[in-house]
Design a protein that fits this description.
By secondary structure, the protein is α/β, with parallel strands linked by helices. It contains twelve helices and ten strands. It has helices spanning 2-13, 96-104, 124-127, 130-145, 166-174, 181-189, 198-202, 211-214, 238-241, 271-274, 299-306, 320-334; strands at 25-31, 40-46, 54-57, 66-70, 79-85, 108-112, 154-164, 224-228, 249-253, 279-283.
Length: 337
């Protein structure tokens, strides 16, 4: 009790920072959803009205943490809401650089850890279920719009989604794009994307067998979408593209060395040119993993020694933090923030 009291006094004794210096507010909650057997871990980032206590979010041996105030009051006003979908093997808290950057642009940001495709539990079979991933975010949206602590501060006419990699496919689904499992099976066997299908082949996945891969997951409440290096773009069902959300922003990281499956430009699957009124942005030098958090100084060495994992290795000349700043600007613009 004494320690808790001391922490509270220390937090309150600090001078209130200027609005420009205010850290984002952050809180966690368990999301109960009908399509999941267990609660989903979710988090919300938002403009803080005042400080509480400062704590690192996403702290670990690989990525640098992002600092936030835990559980402060929400800044007055009706804020746009942004849903965030992480990539395969990722998690919501490791994208604090993005969520805090969107908060700095005035948004409330809602993110989840998608069961079956997060850090430590990423399974080829479960990662194929794009419908379940999209439903995670729709259920989180239901919850926050019904929460009296947050609902009064959300503009329901300004709800957007951002997705990266597998999360990019998830966000495309929420925006009305459906995927063809048979087409993806062909791409993984003979197409130019075959090299990017190793993870799924190791799990014996046949995409056509999974109804959730091809399901209609559109959420009509979403009015903006930004898609970064999405998976499965070559398997997007052409019949659904013109009816999908108009005005999406699609971003590719890197140029000649980017993942074939993620290339939505004219030299890849050209998805950006096939969606209605979509914008296309390339950011280089960078690669697919540059989107992930900045790495602790020893992380790249540890990953090379133990797993030969490239997630902290960027192309020559890449400044990951500078790329993040550019991404925040492009994403905020695409979301109309």
């Amino acid at each position: 009790m004494k320690r808790l009291a001391l922490l509270s006094l220390l937090a309150l004794s600090h001078a209130v920072p200027a609005a420009a210096d205010m850290l984002p507010g952050y809180d966690r909650f368990d999301l109960t959803a009908d399509h999941r057997a267990r609660p989903i871990a979710a988090s919300v980032w938002y403009p803080a009205a005042n400080p509480t206590y400062r704590a690192p979010v996403g702290d670990g041996p690989i990525f640098d943490p992002t600092f936030a105030f835990i559980g402060p009051a929400i800044q007055e006003g009706a804020h746009p809401l942004v849903l965030v979908s992480h990539g395969s093997g990722g998690n919501a808290d490791s994208l604090g650089w993005l969520t805090s950057g969107l908060v700095a642009n005035g948004a409330i940001v809602l993110a989840v850890d998608h069961p079956g495709s997060t850090s430590g539990d990423s399974s080829p079979r479960r990662s194929v279920d794009l419908e379940a991933r999209a439903n995670d975010l729709s259920a989180a949206l239901d919850m926050v719009l019904a929460d009296p602590a947050f609902a009064p501060f959300i503009d329901p006419d300004r709800i957007g989604v951002v997705g990266f990699s597998l999360g990019g496919a998830t966000a495309l689904g929420l925006a009305g794009v459906r995927f063809d499992g048979a087409a993806q099976d062909r791409n993984c066997s003979t197409g130019p994307e075959a090299a990017d299908c190793v993870f799924f082949r190791l799990g014996g996945v046949r995409f056509a067998d999974y109804l959730g891969f091809a399901a209609d997951a559109r959420d009509p409440r979403i009015s903006r979408a930004v898609i970064v290096d999405p998976g499965f773009g070559g398997a997007a069902d052409p019949a659904t593209l013109q009816g999908a959300l108009a005005g999406m922003t699609l971003i590719n990281l890197g140029d000649a060395d980017r993942l074939r499956a993620a290339d939505v430009g004219p030299d890849g699957n050209d998805l950006a040119n096939r969606l209605p009124d979509a914008s296309y942005v390339e950011i280089a030098p960078a690669n697919h993993f540059t989107f992930l958090g900045t790495c602790e100084p020893r992380a790249a060495v540890l990953l090379e020694e133990e797993q030969d994992d490239p997630i902290c290795t960027d192309p020559s000349g890449t400044d990951r933090a500078a790329v993040h700043t550019q991404l925040i600007d492009e994403i905020a613009s695409g979301l109309g923030l």
